[in-house]
Amino acid sequence: MAKIKRVNHVAIAVKDIDAALVFWRQKLGLELDHIEEIALEGVKIAFLPVGESAIELIEPLGDDSAVARYLEKRGAGIHHLCFEVDDIENALADLKAKGVQLINQQPRRGKDGRLYAFIHPKSASGVLVELYQLAGDKET
Ligand code: CO
Question: Which residue from 103, 122, 133, 137 has the least number of CB within 10 angstroms?
Fold first, then answer.
């Protein structure tokens, strides 16, 4: 069974990253590591490290992404929680075997080589859960 190593990040959906940074960076004092666009998911994210973890601000790039619909329905707020695992393929297979509903049956690959997949909130107390396997950890 795959090992859960840490909370990699907590993601917050926002309408406008620049406006949100006024609180998270300027007022709260977190440092902005980088901002990147993830075209596959239709979002732009800002990554603000906090110790071993991070806060991720997510802004939709268009009106038809899942995050745009989320903001429309609920407004800004906590969007998902991400756990870093040592073996994502193994984690997904294990969860599936246990009847957990997955959004991504197979991991997707991010720009920096990390693998990620989402677990459906229906199976996780109403929380959208993301799994990460960083590049350099066990490759599949
Ligand atoms: Co995330």
Answer: 122
CA distances from 20 to 8, 31, 57, 84, 123 (A): 20, 13, 8, 25, 30
Q: What pTM value is reported for the model?
A: 0.90
What is the maximum span of the chain, computed from C-alpha positions, in angstroms?
45
Cα–Cα distance measured from residue 29 to residue 36, given in angstroms and rounded to the nearest whole number = 20
pLDDT at 100 over 90: yes
Q: Tell me how far the alpha carbon of residue 27 lies from the centroid of ligand 1, in angstroms.
A: 23
The pLDDT of 14-36, averaged and rounded, is: 97
The rounded Å distance from CA 135 to ligand 1 centre is 15
16 alpha carbon – ligand 1 mean position (Å): 17
Q: Is the dihedral of CA 133, 7, 34, 37 positive or negative?
A: positive
Tell me how far the alpha carbon of residue 67 lies from the centroid of ligand 1, in angstroms: 12
Distance CA 57, CA 16 (A): 9
Residue labelled with tokens 């350099």: 136
